[in-house]
Amino acid sequence: MKILKSFNMKEQSNMKVGGIAQEFIVVEKKDEIIEALELGNKNFILGNGTNTLLNDDKLNRTFISLKEINYIKELGNNTVEVGAGLDFDKLIEYMGEHNYSGLENLAGIPGTVGGLVFMNGGAYGTEIFDCITAVEIVDENNNIKNIKKEDLKFTYRRTEIQEKSWVVLSATFKFENGYQKDIVEDRMGKRQERHPLNMPNLGSTFKNPQGNFSAKLIIDAGMQGFTKGGAQVSTVHPNFIVNNGTATFQDILDLIREVKEKVKETSGIELEEEIIIVKD
Ligand SMILES: Cc1cc2nc3c(=O)[nH]c(=O)nc-3n(C[C@H](O)[C@H](O)[C@H](O)COP(=O)(O)OP(=O)(O)OC[C@H]3O[C@@H](n4cnc5c(N)ncnc54)[C@H](O)[C@@H]3O)c2cc1C
Predict the structure, then answer these.
(1) Counting Cβ atoms within 10 Å, is residue 6 exposed (0-12), middle (13-18) or buried (19+)?
(2) For a surface tag, which of 79, 107, 175, 279 has the fewest beta carbons within 10 Å of its beta carbon?
(3) Using 50, 70 and 90 to split pLDDT, how confident is the model at 229?
(4) 12 C-beta closer than 6 A to ligand 1
């Protein structure tokens, strides 16, 4: 494993905001994870940083990357075990090569498999857990466990893994036959059209409240396009916050607070952040 001290985290978050971390550990083999967790201080597991907002001040903690744990292992019978660090796009590519079906709706989500499993990510009515049969995790006592899907609690954008701060090492997926290339192309095209992909962002800032859409509530509150310093509620997709190049951590926090206040005022609804915010 590689241990990098005083590591600049700016490029590790897709928002391109981040300060200097005490330590950044890159785990190169799965069995190094326990040692890394024991070495680290206030550990934070980082995938592609596409859902994580980092403070741009000192980060007095250890970030652990599993990006090199990115294997795909065939288990037979349309079942594969996938390392947590694999880019989700690579899993979609693999599904195409093997004529597997089930997660096409998620094509274009820029995270890692571990990041998606952690929060049960999804799109267009499909969630990653739809195709999962088991997850290999490290629990709060640093024990490695393989947990069957039926023994794990998960709902919309929330899992027991997140609640208990477990580490995802791998996930086992079972697919149907018949890869749907047209769906993948359609979803990728829609993302190009509807997401501000030319600017740093973290995807949807807020979860959709039950029976409602955060984007609509933000438009109704008159907040689309609103700015705070270098941070802006995207004019392309109002549930995205974009960095115009000069946004600070504080700009983004202020903008989030103001959007929540205005939405509460106009609709009575309390928005809840989908993004993960690392304050120190
Ligand atoms: C343009 C854009 C579009 C997006 N569209 C969608 C979408 O349609 N649907 C959707 O659900 N999300 C979407 N997202 C958000 C994001 O891509 C997902 O949440 C993704 O799952 C995050 O993965 P990541 O590897 O980048 O996680 P990170 O941002 O690195 O981490 C996010 C959280 O997961 C935890 N984590 C990461 N890996 C592990 C692990 N191995 N074990 C334990 N915890 C871990 C981190 O500690 C952190 O708390 C989008 C983001 C962007 C920028």
Answers:
(1) exposed
(2) 279
(3) very high
(4) no
> For position 99, what pLDDT does the model report?
98
Please state, in angstroms and rounded to a whole number, the distance separating the CA atoms of residues 180 and 121. 20
Ligand 1 contact via 18 beta carbon (within 6 Å): no
Distance CA 128, CA 113 (A): 9
The reported pLDDT for the residue numbered 59 is: 98
Which pair of tokens denotes residue 6?
């005083």
Side-chain half-sphere exposure of 78, counting CA atoms within 13 A: 15
| Gap from CA of 275 to ligand 1 centroid (Å) | 8
Three-class SS state of 162: helix
Domain spanning 2-65: CATH 3.30.43.10: yes
Q: Where are the domains of the chain?
A: 2-65, 72-181, 196-278
Task: Answer whether 169 contacts ligand 1 (Cβ < 6 A).
Answer: no
Beta-sheet pairing, 20-26 with 59-65: parallel
- CATH number for region 196-278: 3.90.78.10
Instruction: Specify whether the CB–CB gap between 13 and 111 falls below 8 A.
Output: no
- Ligand 1: atom nearest CA of 66 is 41
Please identify every residue annotated as catalytic. 157, 204, 274
CB 274 within 8 A of CB 51: yes
What would the pLDDT profile of 193-225 be if each residue is shown by its tens digit? Answer: 999 999 999 999 999 999 999 999 999 999 999
Q: What is the pLDDT of residue 150?
A: 97
pLDDT at 239: 98
Domain 72-181: which CATH class? alpha beta
